[in-house]
Amino acid sequence: MARPIFILLFTVSLVPLIHGSGQGAAHLCRAYCGNITVDYPFALQSGCGHPSYRDLLFCFNDVLMFHISSGSYRVLTIDYAYRSMTLHDPHLSTCDSIVLGGRGNGFVVEHWRTPYLSPTPDNVFMLLGCSAQSPLFQGFPTSKHMPCRNVSGMGCREYYGCEGWTSVGLARGGLGYGSGPPVCCGLDFEAIKGVNLSKLECQGYSSAYTLAPLRVSGPSEWRYGIRVKFAVEVSNDSFCKACEATGGSCGHDVERFGPLCICGSWNSTSNCDSSKSKQSEKLAVN
Ligand SMILES: *[C@@H]1O[C@H](CO)[C@@H](O)[C@H](O)[C@H]1NC(C)=O
Ligand SMILES: *[C@@H]1O[C@H](CO)[C@@H](O)[C@H](O)[C@H]1NC(C)=O
Ligand SMILES: *[C@@H]1O[C@H](CO)[C@@H](O)[C@H](O)[C@H]1NC(C)=O
Ligand SMILES: *[C@@H]1O[C@H](CO)[C@@H](O)[C@H](O)[C@H]1NC(C)=O
Ligand SMILES: CC(=O)N[C@H]1CO[C@H](CO)[C@@H](O)[C@@H]1O
């Protein structure tokens, strides 16, 4: 007689348990934009992902956009294993097309985000048409001691060989050997900490990266775009691992930015197996 009632009670109390600790919440924060997967530490939803990447990515008509203080960039790829992403700025100069006139975004990250987001050390920024008064050249009395250099085997000497120079009225080759500042100055991001074209008094820029250890022969084969690395604190990664292991999705408190494990119908500050409501559900089952 008591048996059917017991089974009924057992089943009813088991439902929220399966829902809470099952796979239901695990991918609650995962999203897709076009063919790009947006997952921890990134998110498209408020409260999801790591707080350092909040208000960073937006999806418009299946196009994933990356927004920082210098502007918006299209996200081409996100590599979660190597913690890097590649970005595209339509006004960035390539080998075929040199864009002057200061319309490019450059690359300036909000100060609070810099520990978590910066261009990779093997990404070369080539600043184009900078004035002699540019802060870049201050403190370098002769053109022999410019801060400009090659990065990962990519530099201006090769870039001067590009087809694009002819369309801006500058002859290919032989640029940068005059008395004034060079027309192109290659740098890694660490050297300048920000590519602000108006502050640096430059007319344009290019950015290229190689996918090491591949060696490419010339500037027509470099990949143009900005390669950015992202890093989250290791300590918070363990919080996230514990959260995901219990079926949750990693997020944060939208007001205080502390870590939060999103467990479906409720949130936990540790993981989805450790809340009072959860414990009471377990007691009910027993
Ligand atoms: C994603 O789509 C773009 C075009 O929309 C394509 O160029 C790219 O190769 C695709 N990437 C993957 C991983 O399918
Ligand atoms: C859980 O956290 C997310 C993100 O902060 C929030 O949007 C949601 O309302 C919270 N849910 C509950 C039940 O508190
Ligand atoms: C770039 O520099 C200019 C001039 O110093 C400044 O007004 C502007 O806010 C800077 N832009 C960014 C994105 O930091
Ligand atoms: C690097 O810079 C030097 C001197 O400007 C140049 O001769 C060389 O071709 C550049 N490229 C590489 C790949 O080293
Ligand atoms: C930036 C951030 O979210 N830091 C948090 C990492 O996790 C610890 C606790 O595990 C928090 O105290 C930090 O605020």
Automatic annotation (TrEMBL):
GO cellular component: membrane
Organism listed in the record: Cynara cardunculus var. scolymus
Domain Wall-associated receptor kinase galacturonan-binding: 29-89
UniProt xrefs under Pfam families: GUB_WAK_bind (PF13947)
Keyword Cytoplasm annotated: no
Name of the protein: Wall-associated receptor kinase galacturonan-binding domain-containing protein
Molecular function via GO: kinase activity; polysaccharide binding
Subcellular location: Membrane
Signal peptide from the UniProt entry: 1-20
Membrane-topology descriptor: Single-pass membrane protein
Keywords carried by this UniProt record: Kinase, Receptor, Signal, Transferase
Primary subcellular site in the record, as a coarse category: membrane
Domain of life: Eukaryota
